[in-house]
Design a protein that fits this description.
401 residues; alpha/beta; 12 helices; 15 strands; 29% helix; globular
Length: 401
Amino acid sequence: MRSTESPALWSRLGTIAAAALLMGATACGSTTSSGGSTAEQPPTANTKPPTSIGTPENQLNLIAWEGYTDDSWVKPFTAATGCVVNHKYAGSSDEMVSLMKNGGGGQYDMVSASGDADLRLIYSGDVKPMNTALIPDFNNFQTYFKAPAYNTINGIHYGISLQWGPNVLLYSTKKFPVAPTSWSAVYDPANKGLVTAYDYAITIADAALYLSKSKPSLGIKDPYELTKPQFDATIALLMQQRQLIKKYWGTAGDEINLFESGDVVIGAAWPYQTIQLKADGKVAVADTIPSEGATGWGDTWMLATNALHPNCAYLWTAYVSTAKIQALQALFFGETPVNTKACAEMEALAAGSCAQYHADAPGTYFNTIHFWKTPIATCDDGSKNCIDYSQWQAAWTTITA
């Protein structure tokens, strides 16, 4: 999750009851499940995770998106476990990757990484496998999030999924009384000066997804695995789109302001922006998932290879995976929980929120979402023909200059 600047859609709920945590829980040590990639083995693939949670170390050092360690749920966790939570808020996935070098450097225990950082962390050896059997609510997760390709390699889990969100097409209903059915609207010269886009290299995947449907001859199967010809075609499209862009947005607040000022009428967004704009009532907007599908993001709590407080780390992960805490975090940030039982908790706190955030989406919904994952040189077929993330970053800098 990225910054929303002012994410709370509702007042603090005060002290919440701590979820029951079994300090001495034991479980089989398997970390495998169906799903995930068949890519090359990461450096820590053979590291065996614990089969039980031991005595808490009374401390936990986290790298997190701002607010992911809000007192509303941190204080009850500390009261229940004795684990005092310290945090370092990161402003970007790149910063998270940098802070996690050398397996957390003996300083950090976990990171709440997004999909565009996960594979970088996994293949650098900075995170290690986790035992899902030590997370009781794991069985209540949406099937997709039990083994998404961005945090699960060859059936080994390098973290536990937390929250997610789709990157929807947000539009002015005054300008578009009929919902756009294609992402072509953000590349249409007719909308010159009225378009916005997320100012981040991973946005390249949005254009690649569109081209995978509009130009099937390119052979794009995965918007995060692009050969040089596919990448070049995608960058060419984004260079053309640059002429249509009024302004790129970096935070949800930026985009909200652009729509409310009338500077833009269409662009990719998170559901949070739609909900905030509708609540403000200054402009009439709606969002949609176009026919080509959409990209999306998913956050994962990942365990540092050199974590000094692994027992507190497992207790924390079990705690934030419970339905109640997932619902609290979802409403606080405007994101969607992976725990299917969180929907009822969300409704109890804010009626209608479950549907607003797609928390009740059927399994088939995820067939339309292509979740962020780190572009790496090794393609899924094992070849080394894909363009890695450093080249995505360089190209994005050129596009937005």
